[in-house]
Write a structure and sequence with these properties.
This protein is 65% helix and 6% strand. The chain is an alpha+beta fold and 741 residues long. The chain has a four-stranded antiparallel beta sheet with strand order 1-4-6-5. Strands 2-3 form a two-stranded antiparallel ribbon.
């Protein structure tokens, strides 16, 4: 009985000992975490082990859980501890750990703060900006397709003129223009053109006939002379008989033909002219066909661009309605609601730019008319060439040559009057292009002003980014950059890059601004509806880190702003962009701010400039309005610290509001997390890679056995004690883990 009772008592004491030791070890782990870094918590709301030595805290807690040593009292459990240690892990410099603590810190605050403070100010803007973006994108796409179409039509007109001039130029020196009357005649000689060939033909035939008659007379006279000489030989010599010679029956001959030179010149001239007509007509029609093929191809490209414009307009009409906004209470001075209707009406006017389907069929008929009339002119030239080839040595072709020359002149004059560089058809085509480009001159003037204004905005941001910093400021940012890259490398993260300069082109800048604004407002909506964790990190940065004050930026531009270029004055700007240049982060923030204001003001411009009528002129005017007003907004922010949200929403917005939006847009990237950690390490002069958030306490505890140690030891061979018996003490190891999140 004594053996059994003693064993049971020791069993009970061991169970109580194990329970007490386990609870003590857990309390010890919690005790270690209770000594957190106060500066880290007070400034950034983060927990990391700090203060007293962890092992000392653990020993203190374990000692406090032992039964007090009192010689007059019976100690049921004389617990003794040895080999106590604390294993620390999960440093706050780890992105996963850091993000969990931020989420825990902000999970209740962030959505409430965002909804009450920021989202209510921008109520109504997301839906309106989507309408504005849709309108701007539509008009920009239409503008690009329009310019492509008009450029193709310009090329087609150029080819069309080339086709006409290929015929008129080919016959420039050989077919008179304007036509010459075929009445009357000209003296035969050198033939320069078809008029010469026709008008000289009568004189040519007369002179050729006269020279032919003279030649016949000469032949007859020579024959008579030869006959007489033969008779004299038969009858004897007249000198020997003493008789005088009989007189000649015909007068003495002249010195050969009178018009041989003129006749020869005419015949050579018409032969040469026939060859030139034939060659020029072949070359001209080939050149005409080549130019017309190019013109038709250009016209087809223009028609394709016009079809693209039709598709863009059709897609805009069939696009889904703007999705419902995120829920938020609107305040006084918000949007009235009619602005979206104005933007939708403007989109509908874009279809006015589309040319009707019969425009292209009529234009192709016009080009076919050039081909047909050119072929008729070629046929007339070849027919005239045949007549000219037949003219030398002929007679009776006067009418054919005059008719051929008259017809060829008439056809060429008619062709030139219609299809030459200043022809009626060409002029009509120019007039049609001018009519459909009624707003181009005004639009280009507005676009030129926009480019000038855009250059001013770029120059302002370049000035802000180019402000010189002191060696101390540069050194501070170099240290911050080193801390950032050290943490990013340690976490095996990827560095991101955001564009920090405005696009070089105003239209590209407007398009990028609307895309960015859409992203910012979508991010705000997601944050309000709780769909994105990024809101927690954005709101954490907004609450815990500093933001550059606009008044100090104004002072900086005026060669003041002392201290603004130190990291501590522009922490959120550094979180966003991570640039080493002390002024570059502020400049990048103002660049994004300008882009958002540009989108809002361009939205206003699309409504305000509708009186221009022509949709592309409205777009150009709205772009100029947006750039000008956005620049005024930046200046107003620097001077007064506040911007009215919109002309249609009299709500005050501040620089910090826009920084919050930018933080939401960029989310919680690895680069941003590393920069937040770098800022904390720099500000508190701590190393978060050694700031642990997880404590594992370890130790070995023992208790003295009262009864029958040998029997207990023997029992230990067959029963699992989860420990060991050494001498008269039972001991076992205990551990506990605890963390801040």
């Amino acid at each position: 009985m004594i053996f059994l009772t003693g064993t049971l008592i020791d069993f009970g004491r061991i169970a109580a000992f194990r329970q007490q030791a386990e609870l003590s070890m857990k309390a010890g782990a919690r005790g270690v975490l209770s000594s957190y870094d106060p500066a880290l918590y007070e400034r950034y709301g983060l927990f990391a082990i700090g203060g007293s030595a962890p092992e000392a805290l653990l020993s203190e807690v374990l000692e406090g859980h032992r039964d007090p040593e009192d010689t007059d009292a019976l100690r049921l459990l004389d617990t003794a501890w040895r080999d106590e240690e604390v294993v620390e892990s999960r440093p706050l410099g780890s992105h996963a750990v850091f993000k969990r603590q931020v989420l825990e810190e902000m999970k209740y605050k962030a959505p409430i703060d965002l909804t009450l403070d920021l989202a209510s100010r921008f109520k109504g803007l997301p839906a309106l900006m989507k309408e504005a973006k849709k309108t701007s994108d539509l008009l920009e796409d239409m503008r690009q397709a329009y310019e492509k179409r008009e450029a193709a039509l310009d090329r087609a007109l150029k080819r069309q003129i080339e086709a006409g001039e290929s015929m008129t130029d080919a016959f420039e020196a050989i077919v008179p223009r304007p036509p010459i009357s075929m009445a009357g005649g000209r003296s035969a000689g050198d033939v320069k053109d078809v008029a010469d060939a026709a008008l000289m033909y009568g004189d040519y035939t007369a002179k050729r006939a006269e020279d032919t008659a003279r030649a016949e007379t000469q032949r007859q006279r020579e024959a008579e002379r030869l006959r007489r000489e033969a008779e004299e030989k038969l009858n004897g010599s007249p000198s020997s008989s003493g008789a005088s010679p009989s007189p000649s029956p015909t007068p003495a001959p002249s010195d050969g033909p009178l018009y041989a030179a003129e006749i020869s010149a005419y015949e050579r001239g018409v032969a040469k002219l026939a060859g030139r007509l034939r060659n020029q007509s072949v070359q001209a029609i080939a050149s005409l066909e080549k130019s017309l093929e190019a013109a038709v191809k250009d016209a087809e490209e223009a028609e394709t661009a016009n079809a693209e414009m039709s598709r863009i307009a059709a897609e805009a009409d069939s696009a889904a309605d703007t999705p419902a906004e995120w829920p938020a209470e609107t305040g006084e001075g918000g949007f009235a609601g009619g602005e979206a209707g104005s933007l939708q009406e403007l989109r509908r006017t874009a279809s006015d730019l589309i040319l009707p389907g019969d425009y292209w069929s009529r234009y192709k008929e016009e080009l076919e008319g050039i081909r047909s009339e050119g072929a008729g002119l070629r046929d007339a030239a070849e027919s005239m060439a045949v007549s000219l080839n037949a003219a030398p040595g002929s007679s009776g072709m006067d009418g054919a040559l005059r008719d051929g020359a008259d017809r060829l002149q008439s056809l060429l004059a008619g062709f030139a009057d219609k299809h030459g560089a200043s022809g009626s058809v060409t002029a009509g085509r120019r007039e049609a292009l001018k009519s459909q480009r009624s707003g181009d001159e005004e639009r280009r003037a507005l676009e030129a002003k926009s480019r000038t204004a855009w250059s001013g905005a770029s120059a302002f941001l370049a000035t802000l980014a180019g402000i010189r910093s002191s060696p101390e400021e540069k050194q501070a940012f170099e240290r911050l950059d080193w801390l950032f890259h050290r943490n990013l490398t340690w976490n095996e993260g990827q560095e991101e890059a955001f564009p920090t300069r405005l696009p070089s082109d105003a239209s590209e800048g407007r398009k990028a601004a609307f895309a960015s604004a859409d992203g910012w407002l979508d991010a705000l909506g997601d944050g309000v509806t709780g769909m994105r964790d990024a809101v927690y990190f954005a709101e954490y940065s907004y609450a815990r880190f500093s933001t550059a004050d606009p008044s100090e930026v104004r002072s900086l531009l005026d060669w003041g702003g002392e201290g603004l270029l130190m990291p501590g004055k522009q922490e959120n700007e550094y979180v966003l962009y991570g640039l080493r240049n002390p002024a570059a982060n502020i400049a990048a923030a103002y660049g994004e701010l300008f882009a958002l204001r540009l989108a809002i003001r361009t939205m206003e411009g699309l409504i305000e400039c509708r009186s221009y009528g022509h949709p592309l002129v409205v777009l150009a005017a709205a772009a100029l309005y947006g750039i000008t007003e956005a620049l005024k907004d930046i200046q107003g922010l620097l001077d007064r610290g506040v911007i009215t949200l919109s002309k249609y929403a009299k709500i005050d917005t501040y620089y910090k509001d826009y920084v919050r939006l930018f933080l939401l847009l960029h989310g919680s990237s690895e680069g941003q997390t590393a920069r937040r950690i770098a800022l904390i390490e720099d500000a508190l002069d701590v190393d978060l890679q050694e700031a642990y958030t997880y404590a594992g306490s370890r130790g070995v505890a023992s208790v003295r056995l009262w009864f029958l140690p040998g029997a207990a030891k023997l029992a230990g061979k067959s029963v699992s004690w989860q420990g060991t018996v050494k001498g008269n003490r039972y001991e076992t190891a205990f551990s506990a883990d605890s963390a801040y999140q």
